[in-house]
Design goal:
It contains 14 helices and 14 strands. The protein is an alpha/beta fold. The protein has 2 domains: about 10-45 and about 300-430, Aspartate Aminotransferase, domain 1, CATH 3.90.1150; about 50-295, Aspartate Aminotransferase, domain 2 (3-Layer(aba) Sandwich). Strand 7 (about 205-210), helix 8 and strand 8 form a beta-alpha-beta unit. Helix 2 (about 50-60) crosses helix 10 and helix 11 packs parallel to helix 14. The radius of gyration is 22 Å and the shape is globular.
Length: about 425
């Protein structure tokens, strides 16, 4: 090639959550049944939309209007409905012009980071959700900047670490919060969020808050939305229907923009997102038509409550099985539908293994574990020996060793089998050194 055509950040585009799938498919080709505990798709794991939701979507499908374009920022009725919901929560007030629809939050994240000035960095949590960390790193061409989440404090952010990193790196222009958090399942109390906003105010940075799991909170947790605590700072909240209805295949998410009129530079940045969306014309129409009818239905609050109780039961059952296993630390999740298992420092060794019945799978895994990080080595052996597919914690922009599993298995018997198998496998693996 006469010129370099590859973006400086191209190698930062990694997504371990789906990357492990390629290895799992090779293991499956060896005759091993796979239990997919890697990706947050409730529908894939057996959850079904209520019939009343399906009836609304079915009716919309018969309306020719839903097959056309919407406005660039999204369907006006859907944006007005969402703006009304934001304003009822209190705090920052918005109009429909502050709501922008995207084809899922992955699209929104790519746009948000892609249209930042390259030198403008956004610091995010570690462990990090791969979509955010990869997109931010790719936009800058450097490793993602992170602040620490502390497992000894229920995976709460280390506010001193966050404050100092922003103070001493003037390239940091934004702060990313994920609440409830993926991959840890932590939920930030209002007072923690207020302290994070105070840091943003002190250092004059804008705030992004991923709230895709905002309606999945349990085990007594209480939190607040970004709109309720943002004050006069410029901010963006990310929301959607993929986890909440759940309808991940709709690829429908939106951002809520706060205080853009107070900050001209921030408003110009938001306008760049709208202009970029204009080149795409608009986002998918059908789910936008469904949002006011489904979320505004009197049955919707009970639907959300039922799902919270369901995930609470699963989380607590898995926690009870794993919490006393020697060599690991497990923090009881309070939101979203993930659990992070953390290996104690120094317990993982390069000589540990699990017995893999399939000779073909064993040969594959023994090849794949060469030179990988210690937690990925365990994840590969777990996959080969049991077919359980989880994600190594070091794949979440994190130096701590562990793995993430989902709480999505709808079959209770199967779910308990998976959790008990993981517990036994950890013990056998650690004892094999």
């Amino acid at each position: 090639m006469r010129r370099q055509i590859v973006h400086e950040g191209a190698d930062q585009l990694t997504y371990e959550i789906r990357g492990i799938v390629a290895i799992a498919k090779q293991v499956r080709a060896c005759g091993v049944d796979i239990y997919w505990e890697n990706i947050g798709d409730p529908v894939q794991k057996g959850e079904k939309l209520p019939d009343w939701m399906k009836a609304i979507v079915s009716e919309l499908v018969t309306d020719d209007t839903t097959y056309g374009y919407t406005e660039t920022q999204g369907l006006s009725g859907a944006r007005e409905f969402i703006a009304g919901q934001v304003n009822r929560r209190g705090g920052a007030q918005v109009t429909s012009n502050d709501i922008i629809f995207f084809n899922g939050l992955g699209d929104a994240v790519a746009r948000m980071f892609g249209f930042l000035r390259r030198e403008a960095r956004v610091i995010g949590p570690s462990p990090a959700y791969s979509t955010h960390s990869s997109a931010e790193a790719a936009h800058s061409g450097y490793d993602h900047l992170t602040y620490t989440l502390n497992p000894q404090d229920n995976w709460m952010p280390d506010l001193d670490d966050l404050d100092k990193k922003i103070q001493y790196n003037d390239s940091i222009s934004g702060m990313l919060i994920i609440n409830p958090d993926n991959p840890t399942g932590s939920v930030y109390p209002r007072e923690v969020l207020e302290k994070m906003i105070a840091i943003a105010r002190r250092h004059q940075v804008f705030v992004i808050c991923d709230e895709i799991y905002a309606s999945i909170v349990y085990n007594g947790a209480r939190t607040a939305s970004l709109a309720e605590v943002i004050g006069e700072r410029p901010g963006i909240a990310l929301r959607g229907i993929s986890k909440e209805f759940p309808w991940p295949g709709a690829r429908c998410g939106w951002i809520e923009v706060y205080n853009q009129e107070r900050h001209p530079m921030f408003k110009r940045y938001v306008n760049s997102l709208i202009n970029a969306k204009m080149l795409e014309v608009c986002s998918t129409s059908l789910p936008q038509y469904a949002i006011p009818r489904i979320m505004g239905d009197p049955r919707y609050p009970a639907h959300l409550e039922q799902r919270c109780r369901m995930y609470e039961r699963r989380v607590n059952s898995a926690y009870d099985i794993l919490k006393d296993v020697p060599g690991i630390t497990v923090v009881r999740p309070r939101g979203a539908f993930y659990m992070t298992v953390l290996f104690d420092p120094g317990v993982l060794k390069a000589t540990q293994h699990l017995d893999i019945p399939s000779a073909q799978a064993r040969a594959l895994i023994e090849q794949k574990v060469q030179g990988v990080k210690p937690d990925k080595r365990f994840v590969y052996y777990l996959l080969g020996a049991t077919g359980i597919c989880v994600v190594p914690l070091t794949g979440f922009c994190c130096e701590r060793e562990g793995f993430r599993l989902t709480m999505l298995e709808s079959d209770e018997t199967r779910a308990h089998m998976i959790w008990n198998t993981i517990a036994r496998s950890i013990t056998r693996y650690l004892e094999s050194a």
